[in-house]
Every structure is written in C-alpha cells, then in structure tokens.
Design goal:
Length: 444
C-alpha cells in the first residue's frame, strides 16, 4: 500500500518543482534576451542612392523609415572599393589585406582555387558557437569550393549565389549553369533574384525558435546586370559577361532599388509579426561605392577607386529601445566595425589568435559616447589611402594628395603643399600599417 504524502512533503515538492521550472524559464529567457541580428548588405549601392541620403529621382520609403527609427551614419566606409575584399573584412572582422582572398579585387572564374581559409574564425562561426542560429541569404563571393563556402564558415543555412553577380532571372553568372544554391546543392527557382532573397529572409525570421538568430541578408542589388523586375515581361537579354559593362538606365536602376527596398520591408514586417522587432539589432550598409547609375554627390569617383565616392557608403543602425530614433552621426565607421559591434552586443568573444580590426560602435549608437576620431586605412593594387581624423591621404596613378574632409568632402583642394608636415605624418602612418599587411598581388 502506497504511503500517504503529508501536506508538508507535498508543499516542499511543489516549491522545488516551481524553482526548477522558474530556473529553466529564466535560463531560456536569458538566452532570448540576447538580440537577434539582421545584417543587410547591398551590392554596389552608392552613398546617395537612398532618398534619405539625397537620391532625387526615386524614393526608398522602407529604408528611409529605418533611418528615422534609428541612427544614420554620414561618414561610414566600406573596407574596400570592390566586393570580395569588403566581404572578407566583414566576415572576419579584419582588414582584407590580412588574408590572401582579400587581395583579389574581386575573385573571378580564374580563382577557383582561392577562398576564405576553412580554419579562419568568422562572425558566423563565433555566433554559432555562442548559441545562435545562423544563416546567409544572398551573395557570398569568398570562394566556390565547399571548403571555402558559407556552410564551412559557421552559416548553418545558405541560400544564394557564390559568384560576384548573377542574372536576376536565370540566376546564371556568366556560364551555362545556374549559380543559385541551397547549402551545398545547386537548385532551380523561378523568380526575380531580389524577390527570392527577400522572401527567403522573411521566412527565416518568421520561424518559431528557441535560440536567437543571426541572419546576413546580402543582396546582389543594385549590382549589374541592369534588370528590373518588370524586364521579365519584355524579355531580358542580359547573359554572360556583357551585362557587367553594358546596358541599363536610370529608370531600370530605380526599379532595382525600389524592388530591394520593398523586399526589405517584407523582412521587417516578418520581424514585427513574429514580435521580434524590439529584440533585433538591424544594420544596413553597402559593400562599396556606387556604379554608373549611382548618385554619389558630393563625393568624387565611384566603385574601384579610393576617392570618397568609391568607399563612402550609407549605413543605418536600428535597435528599438537601445538606439535613439532619428539620430544622425558623423562618426567615422568602417565595415569591420559592424563585426565588432555584433560580437560585442551578443556577448560573443572573438578569437584571440585573430584580433579584430574593427571597434564596437554601440556606445556611439546608444548616445553614450560622443563621436571620436578614427585612423582608417585602405589599399588596392593601384591606390593607397588613409583617414586620420578629418585628414585624408590618397595615392593614385603615382600622384599623392592630402585633403581636409571636414571642409572638402569632394576632395577638390589638394593641401599636400600647404600642409607638408601633416602630409608626411599621415603618409608615414599608412606606410607603417601597410608593412603589417600582406604584400600586394604580383600581377602577371
């Protein structure tokens, strides 16, 4: 016959059970209190290509609203004026010149044996080890072989293209084969690529989950080929290498931009419906300056150059309840800073063997720290540049310049002769930095 449980024993058991359940819920809640991360990277988006940054001929209402809800950076930079090095910088949190893959401007079909080293820690691998669900939706461009791909570098899920660009309808990248992938398998899908990426991202953030997520949404827009969603109805003709240099119009570019803006709106709506809006840090930026149809005013030149037009990019940070709404900052920032910021806010330690080159900008985003001077460096095969405070050193085509960006953001007034001591000081800082990086590729 079973022994009768006394009232005291019943109450003690109930208290212990409640304590266990409460502890479990507290632990689960603590895990979810770490913010989700939505990092959105546009491709070849010029500094002024959002209407909130000055674009005059079309509107980007979703991203404009994101800027109103968060902080808009006016002095944000890409780590390079072309895609592969910048993507290397973000994924690793380090100057691209520290890795061989970061020296390629960009990776091409001739570089099939090149890629991000399989053993190098990434923002995704570090976050995954810290309990995050991780996914990359969109463009990779850091290597084609599986050992170089996103699934090998901490992304549990990948949906997108491995190459630098793809036809928006056929999803081909200059060859007969589609470059659309689901993890390690090539796949076929019908649809405009920007829409496919937006819809997959919205589905990802809407899933029920018990862990916080990190999603990198790397659009191919507005990179060429110049195709808007409506071009399918009239019969697009962009295939192979041609669309990288031919075609397009301001009207088509506007259509591509509005499609991306609308797609981001669907992703943000999915966040809201999942009640994750307030617990998600959203960062939006571009991988380099704009191309022929971009609006880069007041800056000079464009993609591929280290003049401001090639590296100055829009950047928006939103985190409800943490970043004040409607703020604008002149704080200088660079691609690797977003990596450092993401790791800091998620409590994710970096690998001490691979020191980060970026800085956590969340104190600035919160309004807890005033803007401060930065020392930043860039290098391509043909250009060198450094920004120290408001001074900009630039070498191009054998010519060296010094500009004061605080009064001359268009880099029109060369002060090299007028300020020789400043010129030499900043040039020497660049030389010292460059000596710590890998040498430039030897062009055969």
């Amino acid at each position: 016959m079973a022994r009768k449980v006394t009232r005291r024993e019943f109450l003690d058991t109930a208290v212990r059970t409640t304590a266990v359940i409460t502890a479990s819920r507290v632990g689960h809640s603590a895990a979810l209190e770490r913010p989700n991360i939505l990092f959105i990277l546009a491709d070849d988006l010029g500094y002024g290509d959002l209407s909130c940054y000055g674009r005059p001929d079309y509107r980007t209402p979703v991203l404009d609203n994101l800027a109103r809800q968060g902080m808009k950076f006016m002095s944000a930079y890409a780590a390079a004026p072309v895609c592969t090095p910048t993507r290397c910088a973000f994924v690793t949190g380090r100057y691209p010149q520290r890795l061989d893959v970061g020296l390629h401007e960009p990776l091409t079909d001739r570089d099939m044996d090149k890629g991000l080293p399989p053993d190098h820690p990434t923002v995704a691998s570090l976050l995954q080890a810290n309990g995050y669900d991780t996914a990359l939706i969109g463009k990779w461009h850091l290597g084609w072989k599986p050992e170089f791909g996103p699934n090998r570098h901490g992304f549990q899920e990948f949906f997108g293209i491995l190459s630098g660009a793809g036809d928006y309808f056929t999803h081909k990248s200059g060859s007969t084969a589609s470059d659309l992938w689901e993890n390690l398998a090539p796949i076929e899908r019908v649809g405009y690529l920007t829409d496919l990426l937006s819809d997959r991202a919205a589905q990802f953030v809407a899933r029920p989950r018990t862990k916080p997520f990190y999603l990198s949404l790397h659009y191919t827009a507005p990179h060429s080929p110049w195709e808007g969603p409506e071009d399918a109805a009239i019969g697009h003709t962009s295939h192979g290498a041609g669309p990288m240099t031919d075609g397009g119009s301001l009207k088509i570019y506007a259509s591509m931009m509005k499609s991306m803006d609308t797609g981001i709106g669907r992703v943000l709506l999915a966040l809201r419906r999942a009640k994750l809006e307030r617990s998600t840090l959203v960062i939006f930026t571009s991988d380099n300056g704009g191309e022929r149809y971009s609006y880069n005013w007041p800056f000079s030149f464009q993609k591929l150059y280290l003049w401001e037009g090639g590296i100055r990019v829009p950047a928006i940070v939103r985190w409800f309840g943490v970043t004040p709404a409607g703020r604008i900052t002149e704080q200088p920032a660079i691609t690797m800073d977003w990596t450092a910021t993401i790791l800091a806010v998620t409590g994710t330690p970096s690998d001490p063997s691979y020191a980060l080159d970026g800085e956590d900008l969340m104190p600035v985003c919160k309004g807890a720290r005033a803007i401060y001077d930065r020392t930043l460096f860039w290098r391509t095969q043909t250009h060198d540049a450094a920004r120290v405070g408001n001074w900009k050193y630039l070498r191009e085509s054998g010519n060296e310049h010094l500009f004061d960006l605080s009064i001359d953001p268009g880099e029109k007034a060369d002060l090299r002769t007028a300020r020789p001591e400043t010129f030499e000081r900043i040039k020497n800082q660049y030389v010292a930095w460059n000596a710590r990086m890998l040498p430039k590729l030897q062009v055969v």
